[in-house]
Amino acid sequence: MRFIHTADWHLGKLFGQRHMTEDQAYVLEELLALCKDVHPDALIIAGDVYDRAVPPPEAVNLFNEILTRIAKQGIRVLYIAGNHDSAVRLDFGAQLLRASGIYPAGIVRAAEPPVVLSDEYGDVYFSLIPYGDPPHVREAFALDENLSFDGALAVQIAAARAQIPLSVRSVAVAHAFVIGGQTSESEHALSVGGSDQVSAENFAAYSYTALGHLHAPQRAGAEHIRYSGSLLKYSFDEARQKKGVELIELDAVGAASHTFYPLTPRHDVRIVSGMMDELMHKDFDLLPHDDYICVELLDMDAVLAAHEKLRKIYPNLFTITRPNINVNRLSSTERSYERGKSDLHLFSEFYADVTASEMTEAERRELIRVIDAMEQGARAE
Fold it and tell me: Is residue 375 pLDDT above 70, yes or no?
């Protein structure tokens, strides 16, 4: 049995103020090409198909197109709701979709039957375990006691395992924060207060567990319990992560092997570090300048019109950080007149940038007079 494990597409996401739908469509074309090349038995999406409960129409249209094109390749698609998805909306049309080889699981149910797929070695049972916080699990299973996230997941898995015969190959698909996982800034916490983490031991009985929620590709307590990571980089602390999908192969006895296939984005997410003079040099950064960029500006002093200057180099500049800036470097005594000189210097740079010419000597004298008058007025208050 061969299947692709992916998760956390976050269709319809805004990164900063930029809609990512075109970037997502671009990388999903790569995924479709990979499906055509390796022709897996199934594609699994382990939650957070959308970025919010009510996704924009273009995100829904994109998902519809991708599902249709994968189904036309004869590949079954299994997907669950994550904490970003609307369980009810993702569950819409489930019975009709199953007839086309597409198996959604949005709503937490007490008796969700497994999806059974077959290969030359027999059946493989897939437990689709949609994201459920403790109150929803309590309601679905008609329980009286309070549950932790770990306890709620244990209830879901116990119900799922009860429907799987002994000694068969099985796969869990879940959306959870397994203890010890590497987090990213773009992930939303599953709970405010209390522990939202769960034990990897919950998945011990499965041949493989396909996880979603954490955006970095990683193992979760064992090699056969894994996060595929998100489809794209959705924050700058993910800049050094590799994004892609996992191709999983189950042998006759259920031993799982995995191969990571990287996906190349339309625009990479990068952090570029340097002094302003270095950054303005055309040969300083040889990677594509239309990537999504955070500049780590290393100058210690104020830099005039930094955003405007850097945006000429990086049209998709998102933000600038200043790790070395020291606004208090000068003493108050040094500032009494040096401040006037510094303001003169900064305004001279600003004037040159705006007018493409230098100030005349008369203009400089007038500016010095204005700065001195302002300083005297400030001291008199």
Answer: no
